[in-house]
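Why does residue order matter? Because the sequence determines the fold. Keep that principle in mind as you read this record.
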Amino acid sequence: MSETEYVPPKVWKWGAENGGPFASTNRPIAGPTHEKELPIGKHPLQLYSLGTPNGVKVTIMLEELLALGHEGAEYDAWIIRIGDGDQFGSGFVDVNPNSKIPALMDHSTNPPTRVFESGAILLYLAEKFGALMPADPADRAECLSWLMWQMGSAPYLGGGFGHFYHYAPVKIEYAIDRFTMETKRQLDVLERRLSENRYMCGDEYTIADIAIWPWYGGLLLNRQYDAAEFVDAESYINGMRWAKKIDARETVKRGRMVNKHRGELHEQLHERHDASDFDTKTADKVAAAE
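Structure:
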């Protein structure tokens, strides 16, 4: 059916799957679909996530905190396979009623504290450990503004551009043009900001960079939707400089590996329970031991 033949009904009703790689888990209602408790490891911080841009934000943040010497940031990271519907298990819904990764439980508090939505988790961890957030009130406000810019803007990049350009079973010119225009506008916002600043909030690397980089750095570095050429990524000179600089951080390399389930096997650490897991439990080493 072409895009011009569809006439919306007066009241929409959930019918057959609409195609695409996530169709089997899409539904118009919330709540759990099955009973499943979440595992709990040895550390106070328990992360339930997947190596998507939103998940990577939190694992990078935790690895950055550990590198800064915050021993309390040690964590267990459990993989939530969203393609299999793990996010609809009763235990996960208890932590995040929105059934989206990532979700965090902090067992260092009594009772344990749940935190969901990636931006909220970054802010929670920054305040808990007093790190990666400017102390000056004006600088803090700037940092939070860019954090919220990412949270509000990325759905147009992922759910809009990424979906219609890369995932949708039918290529719709209007939808692709609409969301490509908005994505390039956002990249221009990023470019203009980084033309005057080393990082998003000035000279200091903060949670704003950690939040923005997996989405926009990933797009510029051609890790998102195989679309770097399509959006002319190389034309964003300052954005590319920033993306490559952050990409080179050892903490970022580690964070990108955690809960990753695609790509090179040596870059996949499905679960992370100790720093030594990066050396001993990547997918290639697990496969070789079987």
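The chain has ten helices and four strands.
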